[in-house]
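Action item from last meeting closed. Structure (154 res):
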């Protein structure tokens, strides 16, 4: 039986779910999970991996590793889609509006994802780990999207 003190906050609850979603990742370099929430209800989830029907890096290897491409560079040379992109795409695929929603992600979104998040109408993001992309943080600030780094005690 849960006690009042042992019950997680909503932010912890949704971030923990994002961590669970990340376990489905098929990326060999970075494991990321994302949950999009509105009114304390999960609208969509996503993890990083290849598009539906395409071979995953865990099955065929990582081109970025083979070419020694640094993290955050040459995103186009990757079979995978970022967790945030997958969550936004899944919402669109199923006709779920995410305007005004909050996004929980295990990593700070990159610049490409930041632009998608802004245009999707997401108003707040929580992330656990950093992804060194100051331009993404600048865009969030300029667009009025609140970006909150949560405690990394896990």
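Sequence:
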């Amino acid at each position: 039986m849960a006690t009042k003190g042992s019950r997680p906050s909503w932010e912890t609850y949704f971030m923990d779910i994002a961590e669970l979603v990340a376990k489905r990742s098929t990326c060999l370099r970075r494991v990321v999970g994302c949950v999009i929430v509105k009114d304390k209800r999960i609208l969509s989830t996503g993890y990083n991996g290849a598009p539906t029907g395409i071979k995953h890096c865990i099955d065929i290897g990582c081109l970025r590793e083979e070419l020694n491409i640094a993290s955050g560079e040459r995103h186009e040379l990757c079979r995978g889609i970022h967790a945030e992109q997958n969550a936004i795409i899944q919402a669109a695929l199923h006709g779920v509006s995410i305007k005004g929603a909050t996004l929980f992600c295990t990593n700070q979104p990159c610049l490409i994802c930041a632009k998608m998040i802004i245009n999707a109408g997401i108003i707040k993001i929580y992330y656990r780990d950093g992804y060194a992309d100051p331009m993404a943080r600048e865009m969030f600030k300029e667009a009025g999207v609140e970006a909150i780094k949560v405690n990394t005690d896990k």
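Note appended to the action item: The radius of gyration is 16 Å.
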